[in-house]
Design a protein that fits this description.
By secondary structure, this protein is of the alpha/beta class. It has two domains: 87 residues, 2-Layer Sandwich (Uridine Diphospho-n-acetylenolpyruvylglucosamine Reductase, domain 2), CATH 3.30.43.10; 86 residues, Uridine Diphospho-n-acetylenolpyruvylglucosamine Reductase, domain 3 (2-Layer Sandwich). Helix content is 25%, strand content 16%. Strands 1-2-4-3 form a four-stranded mixed β-sheet. The protein has a two-stranded antiparallel ribbon with strand order 5-6. It is globular and about 50 Å long.
Length: 198
């Protein structure tokens, strides 16, 4: 049985500010919701986040990170919660940033063989979209509901890894929101606006 984590400190003023950023339905400090984010599939001891926030776009993520940085609140990113190593458990409480609503496949380039996806895209959604172009990627060892991007940045190993390397080695570019709220591009897209391929 999962151990019930100790209560954390919640500030209604912080909850109000987060609601202003993402809307009242997408930010909460309700304990029953926070409890659902306090554990994963590992044996790591559960920890309650103080707030759960679900952004829908990069601009909201930037505002959340900037606000959290100003208030010195820790932020734990979360996608599908299928991790088995405790990586999405909020060790210090703070904000649990649930990225599942950012789940769009922005582009699949059939000619250059690359895709641009948001962090909440699942393996199942990505595989289904690629299949329409007779393309595939190295689906890692994980459930269809797992996040494609989370698996890739944690070096996921998939069925094509022996030939093409780890999932992390298949990333050519990323847009990253820094703790200050700044948006940076790394990889080939940093050189040119539309150069997402290597």
């Amino acid at each position: 049985m999962t151990e019930i984590p100790k209560e954390s400190k919640v500030d209604s003023a912080i909850t109000k500010k987060l609601c202003e950023i993402v809307g009242e339905k997408n930010a909460t400090d309700y304990k029953h919701i926070r409890y659902a984010y306090s554990y994963d599939l590992s044996f790591v001891k559960p920890k309650l986040p103080d707030y759960v926030v679900m952004p829908t776009n990069v601009e909201q993520v930037q505002k959340i990170m900037k606000f959290a940085n100003q208030e010195k609140i820790s932020v734990t990113p979360f996608t599908a919660g299928t991790n088995i190593g405790g990586l999405c458990i909020p060790e210090n409480g703070g904000i649990l940033l649930d990225m599942k609503r950012m789940n769009q496949i922005i582009r699949i380039d059939e000619e250059s063989h690359y895709a641009i996806i948001e962090p909440g895209v699942s393996h199942a959604k990505f595989a289904s979209a690629l299949a329409k172009y007779n393309l595939r990627w190295s689906w890692p060892v994980g459930p269809p509901s797992a996040s494609t991007s989370s698996c890739a940045i944690s070096h996921g190993i998939g069925g094509l890894s022996a030939r093409y390397g780890l999932n992390s080695e298949e990333i050519t570019s990323m847009e990253v929101v820094l703790p200050t709220g700044e948006l940076v591009r790394v990889g080939s897209c940093a050189i040119q606006e539309d150069a997402w391929h290597s």
